[in-house]
Amino acid sequence: MATVSHEPVRVERDRPEWAEFLRIPEMWASLAIVVMWLAVLFTAVYGPSFVSSNGAGTQTTTIPSAVAVALFAFLGTVSVAKAGFRRDKE
């Protein structure tokens, strides 16, 4: 008589474990984008401004430093979104 072995029984969990959430790349991409824009927010509220004045000191130009940080946050958001939310992942 021959016997046939069966596959091991798989136990399906109702909810995924916490460690499984750490392997989700979309979550990390979203977190990175949120942190970048929080840096822009705090730079806008608490950061200094770039101040330029001419030789006589009669005219001054003030640019918030958050403008430069927002430019780099935008570039970072685009690159993180392309890498973290692409569809052709393996």
Give structural notes.
The chain is mainly α and 90 residues long. Helices cover 50% and strands 11% of the residues. The chain contains three helices and two strands, in the order H-H-E-E-H. The chain has helices at residues 18-21, 25-46, 66-84; strands at 49-53, 60-64. Strands 1-2 form a two-stranded antiparallel sheet. A hairpin with a 6-residue loop joins strand 1 (49-53) and strand 2 (60-64). The longest helix has 22 residues, at 25-46. It is rod-shaped and about 105 Å long.
So how many helices?
Answer: 3
Please report which band the strand proportion falls in: under 5%, 5-15%, 15-25%, 25-35%, 35-45% or over 45%. Answer: 5-15%
Strand line-up across the major sheet: 1-2
The strand count comes to 2
Coarse structural class: mainly alpha
| Helical percentage | 40-55%
The helix/strand order is HHEEH
- Largest beta-sheet characterization: 2 strands, antiparallel
Calculate the mean pLDDT score and round it. 86
Runs with pLDDT <50, length 5+? none
Shape: rod-shaped
Distance between the termini: 44 Å
What is the C-alpha radius of gyration, as a whole number of Å?
A: 26 Å
Name the features.
2 strands; 90 residues; two-stranded antiparallel ribbon; mainly alpha
Topology record:
Blueprint: H1 18-21, H2 25-46, E1 49-53, E2 60-64, H3 66-84
Helix pairs in contact: 2-3
